[in-house]
Fold Alpha 1,3-galactosyltransferase 2.
Amino acid sequence: MCPTYSVPRFLLIWHLQKPSRASQFDEMSLTVSMQVRRLFCLCCLFMLGVCLTSLYMRKETHFFNAKTKPKSVPVTVVTMNDLDNMLNYKARSAVQTQTDWKAPIMWEGIWEPLDYDRIHTDNKTSVALTVFAVGRYLEAYLETFLVSAEKHFMIGLPVMYYVFTERPDDVPQIDLAPHRYLRVIRVERHSRWQDISMMRMKTISELIDSEMKYLFSHVFCFDVDQRFMGRFGSEALGESVALLHAHYYKLPKNRFTYDRNPKSKAYMEIGDYYYHAAIFGGSWESVKAIADACLASIIEDKQNDVEALWHDESHLNKYFWIHKPSKLLSPEYCWDMSLNRKDIFVTRLIWAPKDYNRLRVPKEETAANKSTAHL
């Protein structure tokens, strides 16, 4: 028989209660698993908090912006009405850049061409140009006028040249850019400048009524004996546009050659400026009003056997004295190269040489050309 030994009771209890290595390993794995789960839960809670905070801030920011900022930002920052308000009137201290009634006088350096071009392009501005080429003025000046206009007049905008002449077949053919057109209209030839002035205003008014107002937003009226030399662009457009005469813009008012005859409808004692009839323009409504008013005054003078000193130019000065133009063009826009002025930085349009020996061949034209000697 094998000997038997008695195991102390406390050792037996300790042995029975002592965990095995396997159970210790399982217990450690369980602990690690619980810690991983706890960490995962904390990460999820953190991310959820970030998302909720982001949504809340976005909502608050949108609410704040809705109350303090416009919902949409306009694409066009500068509007048509803002253009003239943005002019740098102080850029040309040696010349007057604004009238007493706050109309701008357009001089080189006070305006930004890109702003004007962009706004007029966005607003689909279109321009009709009228020019009369009668008698020997057709062959002497018209081709030079039109070719130079194609290089410098309202580039980038749709333009229609309306040429009025008694000899449509003699109008030269010129190359036109896209969206630029030429229309020739036959008119009756008159021998006297009073009749030519009346015809000019009457023809312009009637054509605006019948055609131009349906096709063009602006109208410019030019004398033909001129040549474009530089940009004559959208900055010149306005509701009603008058031109400062190159010979008078530096002179005192008492030397302006207004019509001093009280019997004439063009009679003036005082005025603001002396305007040159070689160029005027504006919206079609304004140009029609100018043409109608001048025509009515010319007809009344004719009935009273009166002739204004400088014909339609005298009547135009009277009109612009009563109805102030909204924009004035400086003499840069119609310059006489025989003058020497330091304040003329650019020449946009120049007077063509007047070859009166060639132009005055017909007797009836002699008196007419004398009346334009001051131009």
Remarks:
- Strands lie at 105-106, 127-132, 159-165, 180-186, 218-222, 226-228, 240-244, 275-283, 327-329, 349-351.
